[in-house]
Amino acid sequence: MSGPGPVASGVRLDVSNLEVCLGRTGADVVGDVSFAVRAGEVLGLVGESGSGKTTVVLALLGHSRRGLRISAGQVHVDGVDLLRLPPAELRAFRGARVAYVPQDPSAALNPALRVGTQLKEAMRVHPGAVDDPEGRILEVLREVHLEASPDLLRRYPHQLSGGQQQRVGLAMAFACRPSLIVLDEPTTGLDVSTQRHVLDTIRSLCRAYGVAAVYVSHDLAVVGGLVSEVAVMYSGRIIEIGPTARVFGDPLHPYTRGLLGAVPSPLMAARLTGIDGQPPRPGRRPAGCSFAPRCGFATDECRSDQPAPVPVDSRAVRCVRVTQIRASAGRVSAALSPRAASDAEVPVLSVRGVSAGYARKAVLSGIDLDVPAESCVAVVGESGSGKTTLARCIVGLHGNWTGDITFEGAPLAAAARDRPRQVLRRVQYVFQNPYTSLNPRKTVGQIVAQPLEQYLRLGYRERSERAARALADVSLGADFLSRYPDQLSGGERQRVAIARALVVEPDLLICDEVTSALDVSVQAVIVELLRARQAERRIAMIFITHNLALMRSIAQSVVVLRAGAVVESGPVEQVLEHPADPYTIRLMEDVPKLAFPGTR
Amino acid sequence: MAATAPPTRTGAVPAGRAGRHPWLSVLWTAARTPRGTAGLVMAALVVLVALVGPAFAPHSPNALLTLTFAKPSAQFPLGGDELGRDVLSRVLVGGRLLLLMAVAATAIGIVLGAAAGISAAYLRGAPDGIIMRSVDVILSFPQLVFALLLLSLLGPKSWLIVVAVGVSHAPAVARVIRSATLDVAERDYVKVAELQGMRPAKVMAREILPNLISPLMVEAGLRLTYSIVIMAGLAFLGFGQPPPTANWGTMINENRVGLPLNPWAVIAPAILIALLTIGTNTFTDAVARVAIGVDRRPEEAALVDELGPEQA
Prior knowledge:
The structure holds two protein chains of two kinds. Chain A is 34% helix and 23% strand. Chain A is α/β, with parallel strands linked by helices. In chain A, the strands form four sheets. Chain A has an eight-stranded mixed sheet, with helices on both faces. A six-stranded mixed sheet of chain A has the order 18-19-20-15-21-22, sandwiched between helices. In chain A, α8 (192-209) links the parallel β7 and β8. Residues 1-8 of chain A have low confidence and may be disordered.
C-alpha cells in the first residue's frame, strides 16, 4: 500500500511500510509497519520492552534515535509525507501539526522555567498557528482540567503533582491544535486514579478536536479501556492489528494470546502464564517468524519463512497458522483454588504500632500487621503510601522507627547492623529494581554465593554448589554463573535477585514491588515463580505492590495502606470483592480492567 | 514455569572466582579494543624509549660536543642544545627516571585520594567532615607550592619529590572520588551487602571500589600527566636532579630560548611527553569503557525501549 497520501474518509495519519535500520549494520529494528488512524480516533500501540514501539512513534515525528536511521516507508499526516520534508519544514511541522507527549513529565518539563513560559514557548516557535496565544493558553488549560489561573502559570514544574505535570504536557501538545498527537506511555508513572482521569481527558480531547492519536503502552489494560483500534508489536513487526474488542476479546496470534494470559485480573485468582524466553535482538532474528522459538504452535514452515499479514475477521495477523490455531481450543486459564490463610498460633512476623518518618515528616503511623506462618500477605497502596518504608523498617534499612516488630516471638532491633547475623539471614528482602540491586562488577555466581559466605561462612566448593542449585530453582542454567548483570534481561536479573534471597533458606521473604520494572509477560513468570517457591518451601512472604490485580494471584491476605496508615485488611477475596473502606472501593473502580468477552 | 535450564555452554564456572583475576581480564580486554590498542602502542613507545634509550645513546648526554643550538646534522640528528650537547642522547637518557617518578607519584596520589574519598562518602558523619575539611586545607595551597614547602623543609631528594607530588594529588582525587562514591553508595546492592552483615571496610573494598574504576582510571591518566608537568617545573626551579642530568621536563625549560634556532631541542621531549599523555589517557579511557560494559554490546544499547521505570 503506497501511492499518494490519504484522500478521503477522514484518515489523518497513514503509515506505510515504515522501516528503521541500525545505522552501522543495516539490520532492521522495525520493518514493514503500516497502519492508518482516522480523525478523532486513538490507535493503541502495545508491546514489551525492545519491541520497537518507541522507535515507530519517534519515526512518526520524523525522528530516529542515535545509531538508527529511517530507511524506508512513508508517514503521511493530512496527506503530507513528513519523511520527505526538508529539515526546516519538518521542524515547523513538529509541534504545530504533530505533537509528542513524553513518558516522564517531570523529566520533560524544564525545571528552571515557569509553567506559563513553557506553554507560551510552544506557540512562540510556531507563530501563526494560534491567533491569540494568551487566550489559547487559558483555554487549553481548562480543556486538560487544570485551573486556568495566573497562579498556576507562575509555578515551576516541581510545584505540581505528577498528574498536573502530565496535564501540562498534554496542554503543550494540544496548544497548537495538531493533526496528530503521539503519546508515549504518558500515564506510566501515575497512580491508578490519576491515570484514569488523564486517560479520560485524552480521549475527550481527541474526539473534540478530531485529532488522530497514537498511544504507546506496555499496559494492555490501559490501552483496552482507551482505544478503538490496537496494534500489537513484537520484535519490530506489527503481529496483530484490529479493533480492540476483537484483538483483546479473541486474540489470534500466539503472542497476543500469551500476553493476555499474563495480565493479572483483580476479579479472580488465576495462575498467571507468562511467555518464557526473550524476543530476539535486531540482527539476530531467526529466518522465519520471530516468535517461532517461543511459540507452542510453531512448525517448520514458521521457522523458514517470514509470515505476511493474514487478514482474518476484520484484522491482520502475522501468523501462517492462524486458522488452525483459532480452531484449536481457546486458552484455559488455570484458576487457583483459594488457599485459606493459615490461622496458625504464632505469626512469623508481627508488627505493632509502628510509626516512622524521614526527618520531621511522618511516613507511617501506627501500623499493625501480622504475617502468619507459610502464608503470603500483600501490602498494597499508591506511591507515597509508605509501603516501601514499612518494608525497610522490617528489614532494618530504615532504623528510625518506633513501635514493636517481633520475629518469631523475639523483638527485632531497629537497625540491621544491631541484629544478629542469623536473624538477618532469616529475613530476606528482594528490591524493587533489579537494575540497581545487583552489583554490575560481579558475576551472577559471585552475587548468589555472597550471602552464603556472609551469613553461613561456607567454603568455596559448597558455595558454588548451592549457588548453582539456587539458580536452577529460579530456572536459570549454570552458564549464568559467569555472566555479568548487564548481560541479562530485566526478568533474568530479578530471578538472580530472588535466587540470592532464597539461597540462604529464609523464613520470611519480603518482595518490594519486584515486578514493577518488568514487562507483563515477565511479571507473570516471576510472580508464578515466587508463588511456587513460597508454597513449596512453606516460607512466609510479604508481597508489596501497587497493583491490586497482581496480588490476587499470590496473596492470601491483604493490607491496604493509605498515607501511612492501614485503611483495610483481611482475606484477599473479601477485600477485593467486598471492599469496605471508601478508599479501597475507589481503588478497585479505578483499576483498568481488561473486560472483553473471552478475557477473564 | 516449564522452562528448563538452558544447556550449559561453559560448564560449571566456579562461583566467586572468574578464572583470571577480574581486573586483569578487564585490562586485557581493554588492550584488544581499537581504542585501547592505540593508546597502549603510544604509551608503550614512550616507555620503551625511556627504558631502553640509555643503551642506544650515541654520545654522552652531558658532553659539550657541538655549537649552541646547532641545526640537525648527520652526526647529531636532533642538533645541539643550549650548551652544545647532543639532543638525541639527552632525549634517550632523560626519560627513565622522570617516568618512574611520575608513575610512583601518581600511584601514591590515587591510592591516598581514593581511600580518603571513599571513606568520607560511605561513612558520612564525622569521618566525612574531618577528611574533607583537611582536603580543603591542602587544596588551598597551589600544588606546586605545597610540593615546594615539603622539599624546602627536607631538601631535594628523589623519594621526597615522589611523595610530595603524590600527596599533593590526593586531595583533588579525593574530591572526585567522594562525589562518585556518593552516587554508588546509595545503590541497592550496597544495601544488600549491609543486610548481609558485611563490615564497612569490606563493603567499600568489594562493593564500592570496583564500581569506581571509571573515574579512577580517568584520574590516573590525568594525574600522570600532571605529575610529569610538576616534576618538570620543580626541576626548573632547582628542586630536581642537579643541572647536568638530562630530563625531558628540564630540557623543555632549558631550551625554549633556542626555539627559533633548533626547535628539536624542545619539540622532541615535548612530543614524547604528549605521546605518553595521549596514550595513557586513551588507554585508561578504554579500560573504563570495558569495565562499565560500554563496548560489551555496542549496537544493542541503543535499542532498549525502556529499562523500566526508574526507582522513585
